[in-house]
């Protein structure tokens, strides 16, 4: 029973974090424009701010924001009162919908980097030990340090591909 409650609380906390982020971005764009609701131009600026934060704070390669056509399409779906503007509650649903693909991409990249890379490192450690000069160092390193080093190298390489 405790595990079920913890999972439900985790879902609740994630929703609250998303709500805090969307409120912050909504208020930032709204205050810059002096409007109560967001029109398309304001909404696209908000999308760019969200994707800027995603690219800045998540340990994955750069993710491009959706096109203006995609933003218009999702805006029409999320505009419940059909006024051509997005209010605070509609904005929360809009951000959840527009970033759903991004969450999948980020999850796959994180799994690749932080789950598969250490596994491959451990599988290839024996082969690496046979390389002259490098093999002595690899033999000396504990498995956890070797796997962590390879994982960080993979992550760094993914980040450098964008620079």
What does this entry look like structurally?
This protein is mostly helical. It folds into two domains: 2-98, Orthogonal Bundle (Recoverin, domain 1); 107-160, no CATH class. The protein contains seven helices and no strands. The protein has helices at 2-33, 40-57, 68-78, 88-98, 100-128, 134-140, 143-160. Helix 1 (2-33) packs across helix 2 (40-57), helix 2 (40-57) crosses helix 3 and helix 5 (100-128) packs across helix 7.
Write a concise synopsis of the structure shown.
The chain has helices at residues 2-33, 40-57, 68-78, 88-98, 100-128, 134-140, 143-160. It has 163 residues and is an all-alpha fold.
Secondary-structure blueprint of this entry?
Layout: H1 2-33, H2 40-57, H3 68-78, H4 88-98, H5 100-128, H6 134-140, H7 143-160
Helix pairs in contact: 1-2, 1-4, 2-3, 3-4, 5-7
GO molecular function: calcium ion binding
Protein name: EF-hand domain-containing protein
Domain EF-hand: 66-101
CATH evolutionary superfamily of the largest domain: EF-hand
User: How does the major sheet shape up?
Assistant: none
Overall body shape = elongated
Number of DSSP E strands:
0
Q: Strand-and-helix sequence, N→C?
A: HHHHHHH
SS strand fraction: under 5%
Low-confidence stretches: none
**CATH architecture heading of the largest domain:** Orthogonal Bundle
- CATH class bucket of the largest domain: Mainly Alpha
Protein name: EF-hand domain-containing protein
GO molecular function: calcium ion binding
